[in-house]
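Expect chain and fold; see below:
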Amino acid sequence: MQLWDDFEFRKPADLAVWPADGYSLLLGLDQSGLLDVHHRASKHGRLTRAGVSAQPTLDALWTEYRDNLQAKLDPIYVATRWVKHQIMHRPFYDANRRTSFSWAATHFAAWDRALVIDTPEAVAYKTSVRNVPFSDVYKWFQKRVMAP
């Protein structure tokens, strides 16, 4: 099942500075790690119901995410695909945006990187990201992922 839009992928010039073990760390996780992130993200803000609403959709998203990690694609590109498409395909009953950005932060932490945004910006962007072109979301992450 094809869930992703087309996006011209170009490896960033600085990909070599990302530690290679980030891929291994994330490939060592299963969906239980994501479900834990969802559980924690669900505790913030308004929530109608926590949990997985569409397991086949979550499985497809997770498989694509892992395939991208195994291909050693640009970590920002992989996280952008995850965020954009988790929000679009809504595998959870609620808190899909919160979970997607929380997972992105977890994703970047595997490479010892931080997603640096303030709360008002995060709330505004999470609300609009569904309608923002993929390439713009990618550029937004590029500007906000920082090494220590």
Remarks:
- The longest strand covers residues 114-115.
